Amino acid sequence: MESTHYKILVVDDDEPMRKLIVSLLSSRGHQCVTANNGREALDKIMETKFDALITDIAMPEMDGITLTKELSKHYQNIPVMVMTGYTEEYSAEPPCHPYEHIPTSLLSSVFLFNSIDADESVV
């Protein structure tokens, strides 16, 4: 079976986390580009076509929630995976669900990320 490789934008202000994600994806043959925050990610998306995006939530300049909202306005077809270390602001503890600020259509994209190709896992 032939493997499919994707061009993935990895967005995180934490350099060790970016390197870890890039290492994991690159070892599977995917091409990765990185951005330090949502604003830098939007600039890169305007210049280059990506097959998918992985973003942290808590970042300076533009957080991952704002980034996903901007993507939903202009780049609706790009699958997005949102991740976080659950800071207090985005806590999973009640009453705040970690995804309550993300529109349902974006949540669908998050969970569809792994179904880019149902016959092969992305990570």
How would you briefly describe this protein structure?
The protein has 123 residues and is of the alpha/beta class.
Number of domains: 1
Separation of termini? 17 Å
How does CATH name the architecture?
3-Layer(aba) Sandwich
Q: Order of SSEs, N→C? A: EHEHEHEH
CATH topological fold name: Rossmann fold
Number of strands: 4
What is the average of the pLDDT values?
A: 76
With strands numbered from the N-terminus, the spatial order across the biggest sheet is 2-1-3-4
By DSSP (H or I, 4+ residues per run), the number of helices equals 4
**Uncertain regions spanning at least 5 consecutive residues:** 91-123
| Strand residues, percent | 15-25%
Fill in the keyword field for this structure.
4 helices, 123 residues, 4 strands, alpha/beta, Rossmann fold, four-stranded parallel sheet, 15% strand
Task: Tell me what the structure shows.
The chain is α/β, with parallel strands linked by helices and 123 residues long. It has a single domain (7-115), classed as Response regulator (Rossmann fold, 3-Layer(aba) Sandwich), CATH 3.40.50. It is built from 4 helices and 4 strands. The chain has helices spanning 15-27, 38-47, 64-74, 104-112; strands at residues 7-11, 31-35, 52-56, 80-83. It is globular. The relative contact order is 0.18.
